[in-house]
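Incident log, structure service

09:12 report received: a user says their structure output differs between two submissions of the same chain.
09:20 pulled the input from the user's history:
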Amino acid sequence: MLIKRPSDIRSSEITDEKFYRARRRFLRDAALAAGAIAVPDLILPQWAEAAQKLGPLKKSALSTTEKLTTYANVTGYNNFYEFGTDKGDPAKNAHTLKPRPWTVAIEGEVKKTGTFDVDELVRPFALEERIYRLRCVEAWSMVIPWIGFPLGELIKRFEPTSRAKYVEFQTLRDLKQMPGQGGLFGAGLDWPYVEGLRMDEAMHPLAILAVGLYGDVLPNQNGAPLRLVVPWKYGFKSIKSIVKIRFVEKQPLNTWQKQAAREYGFYSNVNPEVDHPRWTQAFERRIGEDGLFSPKRKTLPFNGYADQVASLYAGMDLKKNY
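09:34 re-ran on a clean worker, output below:
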């Protein structure tokens, strides 16, 4: 089987998003016309019975109206070191991940703890489409139509105690499913991958747990079956393939901060005034705008979400707390 990287794919081979989405709607509507139970655009083969109870997707008012990055680029150009360090490695190697069965442990400073099947965990929440910018620390960006629900809604369900100041997330550690975690391909990281948010960040309406994109279930390389999306922070904060959510009193030590604290801080808010030690963050390249004369975009503070989130950091030195 020949697997192409995004750079190998001619634009004429890529299905335009409006036709892709129209085709999804057609398949859904055809099923409805045949008398099937109403189901959302997000039809998860693994969810079966659960999918019939989710209802139609809500369009979020928090979405950007910017042009979407193509499906081919969203799913073919990824950082997911558990499957390799090259941007094309996850799409090539993530077939080893088995997103069902999958459980998520809820631990720490909450009144309700336990280990939950991911479908049972997600089922109570109404899914919606959120079109968000994703900005990576390597100075590239995308616009992605995520499908998910507010992280804050899940947090409220488990009733954090007054000692819960931070939320820590952990991804799967399994060398058989994630071969990039072992041997010479382990990228020198201390697995499993860990990330964290301050509680007020986690409760912000923009922070979501995503289960899909482009009207369908999350591909393995994009973090199946459950990932975090925090659009005002650099992409490495949006941890993929979550298996544990812990509520803690002390600030978690996230993986990249542990690996290279001088380059990756805990907050990791998109800030054009704080350069990575090896490159500038003042500009970014939108994936798909790769023409010879395509100008780079200026990086926006908080990735363009300053009006919504800047108040979270009032009084903080954002160069010191990078």
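09:41 both user submissions now match this output. Likely a transient worker issue. Closing.
09:42 reviewer note: The chain has eight helices and 13 strands. The two ends are 43 Å apart (CA to CA).
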